[in-house]
């Protein structure tokens, strides 16, 4: 049975035992050797495939190339075998923290992998690259890797359920540092005291502002979670050497809650598995069918439907205005409520367009489809009729959609909204959608065959057919893999693919 852990700020002269701190409770969950249940194992396999799919699609993109080159410029650390880098030959290894960095950027670059949304936002698949990197470095087997990934998902999702970061403009990767450190602790079989120190340092070093996802969004958007994973690896290394970290990191009077979140009078109730309770949080997360911010997923599906049913809506001459009535988050983060003129700029970066629901809805409406490259191409964004229609799209917060967005009832939790289209002839078209088609409650919930199809589509341009089959075979046998097979749990690009990618030079 899940236990709710009450968290508040303590003065320095107030007693707060280590065992009562949130970081220690997280560590105890990580150190609990409970078995991973079969349906959780199945979903972990799905998400390992999903991560590899989106990483394959991003191999030649500049931010991924830069991170990969940084990793390749670092040698394997002396006390392990090192870890693989997405795209590179199996024998090419780097130190695990740099593998976590390079692979984390590859996974996150296209904003195309899994998501969990509650009090905070998250992409819990970001836990996988650092945990896999450490598993390869130390020679762990597939069963240990599965246990580590289950913990990473559990801790991040539990924190996301309870503690809002974005409300205080703190980037959501502040929940990822602790979760990845906890997952690595589980993988390695560390004791709670050691994991506790790693969690504290990982949180302390991964708190940053949300400017990485605001205004003109830069390539750091993909690097930020990779940095959190890298910091988690380093935090575990330091804790294993017997070093300590700021404490109490959450509850201290100069800690994260007091000065970065809700302040000294704040309190939260964080749900964590009870001792002996299975870690099942991954089953509450969901992946993306489309390469766009998760809150755009349902809107893409609705726009495709409307454009196919009513082709006249694709012509801006027929449309007076389009209003998307939606949740607070969608309106203020990726909608017109953000006040970002860049969200209506046809010369904006891909990262910015990915966070513009007016743009995304327009293109999906006109094209009846969404593509991870073509839909963001500069010539697509700059098309005259698209710009004209795009500038007629606005968002508005609807209290009911906000309530459903934050609902704890999975049967009514929603990430969509209601569209109102006013035509120039005076007529009005209305429609609504609650969840994306690929959502567990959607029209076409994603299953194993969908994850595999997504992988094949994204991997075929850059991997050989033999490599595609090799990876899928390994991934689907994940819990039974030997250490030697875990060391090969990566994707190797076709000859010449990486040679044609940017290879920027830097300090290293």
Describe it:
It is an enzyme of class 4 (lyase). With 508 residues, this protein is α+β, with helices and mostly antiparallel strands. It has two domains: 3-284, 2-methylcitrate dehydratase PrpD, CATH 1.10.4100; 294-433, 2-methylcitrate dehydratase PrpD (60s Ribosomal Protein L30, Chain: A, 2-Layer Sandwich). Helices cover 43% and strands 9% of the residues. It contains 20 helices and ten strands. The strands form four sheets. Strands 8-7-9-10 form a four-stranded mixed β-sheet. Strands 1-6 form a two-stranded antiparallel ribbon. Strand 9 and strand 10 form a beta hairpin. Helix 1 runs parallel beside helix 7, helix 1 packs across helix 8 and helix 11 (297-309) packs parallel to helix 14 (357-367). The longest helix has 21 residues, at 142-162. It is globular, with a radius of gyration of 22 Å. The model has no long low-confidence stretch (mean pLDDT 96).
């Amino acid at each position: 049975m899940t236990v709710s852990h009450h968290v508040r700020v303590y003065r320095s002269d107030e007693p707060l035992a280590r065992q009562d701190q949130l970081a220690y409770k997280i560590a105890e969950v990580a150190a609990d050797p409970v078995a991973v249940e079969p349906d959780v194992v199945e979903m972990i396999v799905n998400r390992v495939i999903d991560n590899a799919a989106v990483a394959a699609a991003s191999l030649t993109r500049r931010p991924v190339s830069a991170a990969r080159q940084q990793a390749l410029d670092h040698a394997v650390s002396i006390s392990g075998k090192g870890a693989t880098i997405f795209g590179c030959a199996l024998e090419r290894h780097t130190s695990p923290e740099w593998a976590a960095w390079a692979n984390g950027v590859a996974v996150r670059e296209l904003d195309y992998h899994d998501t969990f949304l509650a009090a905070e936002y998250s992409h819990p698949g970001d836990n996988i690259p650092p945990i896999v990197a450490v598993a390869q470095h130390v020679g762990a087997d597939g069963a240990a890797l599965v246990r580590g990934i289950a913990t990473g998902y559990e801790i991040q999702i539990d924190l996301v359920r309870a503690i809002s970061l974005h409300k205080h403009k703190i980037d959501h990767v502040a929940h990822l540092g602790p979760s990845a450190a906890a997952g690595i602790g589980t993988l390695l079989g560390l004791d709670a005291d050691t994991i506790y120190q790693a969690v504290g340092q990982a949180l302390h070093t991964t708190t940053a502002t949300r400017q990485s996802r605001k205004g003109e969004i830069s390539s750091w958007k993909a690097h930020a979670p990779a940095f959190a994973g890298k910091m988690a690896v380093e935090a575990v290394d330091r804790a294993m050497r017997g070093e300590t970290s700021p404490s109490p990191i959450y509850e201290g009077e100069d800690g994260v809650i007091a000065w970065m979140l809700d302040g000294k009078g704040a309190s939260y109730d964080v749900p964590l598995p009870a001792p002996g309770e299975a870690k099942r949080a991954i089953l509450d997360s969901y992946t993306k069918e489309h390469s766009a911010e998760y809150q755009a997923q349902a809107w893409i599906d609705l726009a495709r439907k409307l454009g196919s049913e009513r082709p006249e809506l694709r012509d801006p001459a027929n449309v007076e205005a389009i209003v998307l009535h939606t949740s607070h988050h969608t309106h203020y983060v990726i909608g017109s409520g953000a006040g970002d003129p860049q969200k209506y700029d046809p010369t904006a970066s891909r990262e910015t367009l990915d966070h513009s629901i007016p743009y995304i809805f327009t293109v999906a409406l006109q094209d009846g489809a969404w593509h991870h490259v073509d839909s963001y191409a500069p010539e697509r964004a700059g098309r005259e009729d698209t710009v004209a229609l795009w500038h007629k799209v606005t968002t508005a917060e609807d209290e009911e959609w906000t309530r459903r967005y934050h609902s704890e009832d999975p049967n009514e939790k929603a990430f969509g909204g209601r569209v109102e289209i006013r035509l120039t002839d005076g007529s009005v078209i209305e429609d609504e959608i609650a969840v994306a088609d690929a959502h567990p409650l959607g029209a076409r919930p994603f299953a194993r065959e969908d994850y595999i199809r997504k992988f094949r589509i994204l991997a075929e341009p850059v991997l050989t057919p033999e490599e595609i089959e090799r990876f899928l075979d390994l991934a689907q046998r994940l819990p039974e893999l030997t250490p030697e097979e875990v060391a090969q749990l990566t994707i190797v690009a076709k000859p010449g693919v990486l040679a044609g990618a940017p290879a920027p030079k830097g300090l290293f």
